[in-house]
Amino acid sequence: MQQQTGTRTTAIAALGRSTIDFVSSLGEIFLFLIEGVRLIFSSPKQLTKIIRQMYFIGSKSLFVISLIGIFTGMVLGLQGYYTLVKFGSEGLLGAAVSLTLIRELGPVLTAIMITGRAGSSMAAEIGVMRISDQIDALDVMDINPMAYLVSPRIAASIICFPLLTALFDVIGILGGYLTGVTMLGINSGVYFYRIDTNVVMADITGGFLKALVFGIIVATISCYQGYNTHRRTDSVGPESVSNSTTAAVVLSCVLILVSDYIITSFLL
Amino acid sequence: MSTTTWDIDLQDLWGGYNNTKILKGINGSLPAGKISVILGGSGCGKSTLLRHILGLNHPMQGKIHIGGHDFFSLPKDQFRKIRRRMGVLFQDGALLGSLTLGENVGLPLAEHTKLPPKTIRTIVLHKLGLVGLADYIDYYPNELSGGMRKRAGLARAIVMDPEILLCDEPTSGLDPINAAEMDQLLLSMKEHFPSMSIVVVSHDLESLYKIADNVLVIHEGQAAYCGDLEGLKKHNDPYLKQLLGRQPNSTTQPVISLGADVQEELSKWLKK
Ligand SMILES: Nc1ncnc2c1ncn2[C@@H]1O[C@H](COP(=O)(O)OP(=O)(O)OP(=O)(O)O)[C@@H](O)[C@H]1O
Ligand SMILES: [Mg+2]
Asked: What CATH number corresponds to the domain at position B15?
């Protein structure tokens, strides 16, 4: 009995500890974000770095985003048709596909894809720089490492996430067209007419707002994890870089879905 | 801020990482216009001491005076001003992996000056030429050998004509000819910039005798010796004699083979 109470209190204490750690690290991440955003405007030289990051996060993600977009649209077309035909309203397919994509799947799937592609590499690259003294070297040269490494990535993400989401939406709608119209024979005019009448501006701005928030989340979390690789208590050296990268991807994905729910509930 | 000389004074300096104390009360001075060599066993805290002088680690206790200013209690802008006048060669070079050698060496110029790219490239070519790497200006650090990275690190350290030059083991990993050239380069830097403080961490006794004006020996977290080279040679301290004479800790032969049964078990696998 004594024993049991003991384990129960330690378990509760551990839970409390990890909750406190999590909350305090959220505070730290928020300050990290503020500093990162402030330093975007620290010098005109930031522009070239931002463009280089946009090339990396944006251009290099085009192919994956298109690929995922077309298949997501196609499968939505199939599933939507299967459901709608039961109610005899397969004509609404255009509206179903486009609203699902614009309001929900576009921003979320794009963000998760870019987390895997760019977020992980932000964490790994900055983490390697941390453990091989490169960040200290920047510091000693009086080049602010936050301004040099973190700010351009945050700025580029803020620009690229909404653009890539827009691309994903458009290609997804074409994917829905492929299955719905080309394969299952819905009238092409009806498909686009339903999109036109059912999608309102609020859907689009809501989707962009999500993309913007996800961009900030992914860049901030990934850079933060990489930047603090040396402070990890679970590992040192190369292993700490791999742990930072994993933490960046997992935490980003979780926060994407949590914030998605929160934003949706406010927008509805 | 009127700093004309760049002496570095260590006053009862305690430091290390998190809760482990590595430096335990170091006193000593590294005078301007001289080459000071920091000597000591592997893992005794030489790189750690450099990190403190660079302001990357805070002292736990004690002070570092640079040019007469208490370095760690300066306001932030003056702290940065002094730090901008330092050039560092890190033990592993610490070149940025995503930039070419030329971009690495030119980085401080590109960030802190408005010089046109062409002028920067000319300066970079000159500094890389000094360390014999002018042909490698467009290579990435990972395409070079360890010794070449080290020399490139030195080129970056001197690109802003610093007042304090700190080099962590500049000759380790270099062949004898390149090591000798590195010594030569440090000596000509001293000649060229008479007010510069040059601090070199080294295990290399040969280069110690060639370049050192002043020596700081660290042993068990404290300064076992701080003074000129002649004084060090004449010193009677047993540790210093052992260090300079390259004597091992024990005179008995090391036992190479394991116990008979373990050795036999291992051998079975090695012969498979
Ligand atoms: N980041 C770190 N965190 C904790 N301890 C460290 C860290 N870096 C070094 N140490 C410890 O500090 C001590 C001194 O290390 P330091 O790198 O200063 O040695 P050194 O004199 O430069 O050795 P070497 O000649 O081999 O380069 C070592 O015992 C090492 O384990
Ligand atoms: Mg060292």
From this structure: 3.40.50.300
